[in-house]
Design a protein that fits this description.
The complex is a heterodimer of chains A (223) and B (293). Chain A has 223 residues and is an alpha/beta fold. Chain A is 34% helix and 18% strand. In chain A, the strands form three sheets. A four-stranded mixed sheet of chain A has the order 3-7-4-8. In chain A, strands 1-2 form a two-stranded parallel ribbon. In chain A, α1 runs antiparallel to α6. Chain A starts with 7 loop residues before the first strand and ends with a strand. In chain B, α5 packs across α6. In chain B, 24% of the residues are buried. A seven-stranded parallel sheet of chain B has the order 5-4-3-2-1-7-6, covered by helices on one side. Chain B has 293 residues and is α/β, with parallel strands linked by helices. Chain B has eight helices and seven strands; from the N terminus they run ββαβαβαββαβαααα. The chains are: A alpha/beta (223), B alpha/beta (293). Chains A and B meet through β2, α1 and α6 of A and α1, α2, α6 and α7 of B.
Chain lengths: 223, 293
């Protein structure tokens, strides 16, 4: 919160029933710990573990729309834990870079180009065509084909932000999730600790959240 | 003879009410309860089909200063449709939605023939959002107290307190104003305090039953969470041990470097030495450390 340099609303989701916060109430002093007057309000949600961070973000997207907040940009972040990656700490730092104070001015400057839809850490941008680990699971598998058809997503290329931490132009997500209810999307996602060993709906949406932006003709820019 | 130490309960103010009190309110009253419902649970009587009403209700609850436990009181004329179900589920994600035993609770008022189907639909939709179960409590208008039935409420409350076999009972009270809720709460608190003084043993037993029930639920949650976490950690270890990532790194190394011709690699070492990235002597002497870092 202390990194923010522009007025913001914080939407905060916790996983219910997580071993690490069993019966812990959400800290009520959290709003008071922000020293600047940039924090407009905090909205807490708590959800079962479904769809990992994507599921949590969809819960918050639903809350955002229901509260009628009007915003220019949405910054998606989560407490990136990748205990099965040998370089998880480094990866987390790379992803979080885009939320750091020092980078925000640059992010907003990039968005001054109206064609930009997403701004993310440069090292997080991948192209699914070159994803050797998944054997084309998210190019033409049944899962991804079905979702692209159902949600009318047809990106010009397969670039996406791995790790799902990025700034996005709010109007794009508002339009999409007004048409397609976030909880409908969330209902498809897998429960629990879903791993990316075979194509999953959760990891498909890691791509689709970016592809729905590029389908509309916007660009993904890395910094 | 029951041997127990109940002296610790002498300070009545530290204890929650023995029986859950549900204050049934219309959504427009939420702003009055902004500072919290006195010692009870707010049961918001919501029309899920009224988009404007339920959105306003959602916003009012999010903006309440005190995070009072609340639940939905649904008067359903039929099985709810998908948009209505999404409206309902949105409330479950609010941290102060009343969820005893991790199961969101709904008070249901509908025709007898619709109860089971409505409850099943609500459970199915909640399940799709990851909630293992929801508690649908069927309510009957005859069991709902209004502010004009205060005396009956008081008598019934006392009767339940004095009944040795009743450990749990819900009281549903329809209120039109926060001051009425406060008045009822004060009255019930006084009566319960009097009961605690006059029937120490029975009061203690009932409180202990309630506390132990909550402890058991908490331990069950901890057990499930710990079991899940152990399974997660085991799968993570299996992935790390499978060396999939090591294989990926090895393949990357092989493709980007190893397949290059030897003369090109040696030229690269020379460039490294000339640009200061590698010690020059290490090109000729294997006993010299190659890299400075």
């Amino acid at each position: 919160m202390d990194e923010m340099t522009v007025p913001f609303f914080l939407f905060y989701n916790c996983v219910a029933g997580s071993y690490y916060r069993i019966d812990e109430a959400i800290d009520p002093s959290l709003p008071m710990r922000n020293n600047s007057n940039l924090l407009q309000s905090i909205y807490f949600n708590q959800s079962p573990n479904r769809g990992k961070d994507i599921g949590g973000k969809l819960v918050l997207m639903n809350a955002y729309l229901r509260l009628g907040i009007e915003s220019d940009y949405i910054l998606l972040v989560h407490d990136k834990q990748s205990p099965y990656h040998s370089n998880s700490q480094q990866w987390k730092e790379e992803l979080f870079k885009v939320a750091k104070r020092d980078y925000q001015e640059k992010v907003l400057d990039v968005f001054s180009n109206k064609k930009v839809g997403i701004v993310a850490s440069g090292n997080a941008i991948r192209n699914e065509l070159y994803n050797d680990e998944n054997s084309k699971g998210y190019i033409n598998s049944e899962v991804i084909t079905k979702l692209k058809t159902a949600y009318q997503i047809n990106p010009p290329d397969l670039c996406f932000v791995a790790g799902t931490m990025f700034w996005v132009r709010a109007s794009i997500f508002e339009e999409f999730f007004t048409k397609f209810h976030p909880l409908d999307v969330r209902a498809q996602l897998e429960e629990g600790n879903v791993m990316d060993l075979a194509p999953t709906y959760t990891h498909a949406w890691e791509r689709l959240l970016c592809w729905l932006v590029t389908t509309k003709g916007y660009q993904i820019i890395g910094i | 003879m029951l041997a127990c130490d109940y002296k610790g309960l002498s300070n009545y103010r530290d204890m929650k009410p023995l029986f859950p009190i549900y204050y049934i309110i219309k959504p427009h009253l939420l702003k009055q309860f902004s500072s919290g419902a006195p010692g009870g649970i707010l049961a918001v009587q919501l029309n899920l089909y009224n988009e404007v009403e339920q959105l306003q209700c959602y916003q009012d609850i999010c903006n309440m200063k005190a995070k009072t436990p609340f639940c939905l009181y649904l008067d359903l004329s039929g099985v709810p449709d998908i948009p209505a179900l999404h409206n309902m589920a949105s409330f479950f994600f609010l941290p102060h939605y009343y969820q005893p035993g991790d199961e969101p609770e709904i008070l249901l008022c509908c025709k007898e023939e619709h109860v089971e189907m409505c409850a099943e639909t609500l459970r199915s939709n909640a399940g799709a959002q990851g909630f293992n179960n929801i508690k649908c409590k069927k309510t009957y208008q005859k069991n709902v107290y209004t502010s004009s039935l205060k005396e009956k409420l008081l008598n019934d409350y006392l009767a339940k307190l004095n009944n040795e076999t009743i450990m749990q009972h819900d009281f549903l009270i329809e209120v039109e104003d926060v001051s009425i809720a406060n008045e009822i709460d004060t009255t019930l608190e006084q009566e319960e305090k009097r009961f605690a003084n006059e029937n120490k043993m029975l009061h203690y037993v009932k409180h202990e039953y309630k506390n132990l029930t909550e402890s058991v639920q908490k331990l069950e949650r901890s057990f499930v969470a710990a079991t899940t976490e152990i399974a997660n950690q085991q799968s993570h270890i299996a992935i790390l041990r499978s060396q999939t990532q090591a294989a990926h790194l090895q393949n990357y190394y092989n493709n980007e470097y190893e397949i290059l011709p030897t003369w090109y690699k040696r030229f690269g070492h020379l460039v490294k030495a000339l640009t200061g990235k590698r010690r020059f002597r290490s090109l000729f002497d294997n006993n010299v450390k190659k890299y400075r870092q």
